[in-house]
Amino acid sequence: MAKTVLSVNAGSSSVKITFYAFKNPPRAIADAQISGITAPPTALKYQRGSVKHKEKLQEKLSTPQDAFKYLLKRCFSDPELSEVASEGDLAYICHRVVHGGDYPDSVEINDETMSHLEKLEELAPLHNFSALEIVRLCRKELPSIPSITFFDSAFHHTLPDHVRTYPIDQQVAKANGLRKYGFHGISYSFILRSVAEFLQKPQEKTNLIVMHLGSGASICAIKEGKSIDTSMGLTPLAGLPGATRSGSVDPSLVFHYTNEAGNLSPASTKEMHISTAEEILNKKSGWKALTGTTDFSEIAVENPPSEAHKLAFQIVVDRILGFIGNYYVKLGGEVDALVFAGGIGEKSAMLRRTLSEKCKCLGVAIDSQANDKGPEDDETVKDISKGAGKGPRTLICQTNEQFEMAYHCNRARS
Ligand SMILES: Nc1ncnc2c1ncn2[C@@H]1O[C@H](COP(=O)(O)OP(=O)(O)O)[C@@H](O)[C@H]1O
Ligand SMILES: CC(=O)OP(=O)(O)O
Ligand SMILES: [Mg+2]
């Protein structure tokens, strides 16, 4: 029996892969990622044990399939990485697919599930395309290795009807699958398990407000271990602003922004159709549009370099607060913890401090030293609360989507 599981997390501009020992809990063997696929320079990060390596690549890797092939070859040909030298060493490949439609759980890929996912691709071309390109490649070039797809949306299958339903014609809504799905669920599942364990509570008694803040950002209200609301919607565009995403705006805005809103974007390809409006709101908005940078660490600083940076920070804080207030009330004020996760949530002490101060009225208080220090590399959950206050505790959780997929894959199959 092959001894490793490969987890793949493909985004629009990056592909990350991690190999794990096929046991529980999974042990990471090697981790590699390529960024800058659509916007060069293309860069490689590689880690095996304590060995870390970064380089800019000369190779032209313009598609997720090229990037994945490159990463696989690189890992297979590393003489120090004897556990993964060829296809025969792989037991399963786990793929993160953002939009899983009505699937409440992961699925093993076969002709039927693949054709279902290909239909869904039309609903979420920007988010599913890269992942499905890699699934297609694996089916063709590694046909003996089962592929399992894990969906960001699956964690939110517990959303109540009144939360998931948009108030539009229900015949049209049902015929076209138009409802709130919610995303970042693989991450929320990791966070719920890790935080419940940290708090020594069963998951089904744990209530949390979790913020997954990265270049795509969302919030989730978890009641008794189940998602009861989340800020993203039919697609990951709704809710909070992101690096290049507007987040929620008045839907009529697109018709005033451009006359060509409904036309195909010039960025569309034969395989991937996106409209001009989708292109603008997903790729040309967010804090990049306000400040010129996608890097939030240039925005969350004490002395911002421009008024635009200051404004971008205030907007992000304002939108997050709106959801915290909303979810605090929906959870009846019974919140075990506010949890910060994702690249920004885990690294920006300033954002955590600003939000915590504004949530003082909920009894939130943080220890500024613990907050400034942040978590150690190997610390999954860190408590930054000040003493045992009246309100929810404040935690940082270093989330790990690749681990979460391997964890569930190995648990169900070993
Ligand atoms: N010290 C920091 N302060 C604020 N933001 C940071 C810091 N370090 C990284 N980030 C931001 O984290 C984001 C990436 O988050 P991550 O969750 O890794 O990305 P993705 O959404 O692409 O999966 C980027 O916007 C980056 O600027
Ligand atoms: C769902 C989503 O927005 O994912 P990401 O943050 O990885 O872009
Ligand atoms: Mg992410």
UniProtKB/TrEMBL annotation:
Domain of life of the source: Eukaryota
A single GO BP: acetate metabolic process
Residue positions of the active site: 152
Residues binding ATP, per UniProt: 16, 212-216
Positions with a binding annotation for Mg(2+): 9, 401
Annotated substrate binding sites: 96
Cofactor: Mg(2+)
Record pathway: Metabolic intermediate biosynthesis; acetyl-CoA biosynthesis; acetyl-CoA from acetate: step 1/2
InterPro entries for this protein: Ac/propionate_kinase, Aliphatic_acid_kin_short-chain, Aliphatic_acid_kinase_CS, ATPase_NBD
Enzyme Commission number(s): 2.7.2.1
PANTHER family xref list: ACETATE KINASE, ACETATE KINASE-RELATED
Family: Belongs to the acetokinase family.
Protein's name according to its UniProt entry: Probable acetate kinase
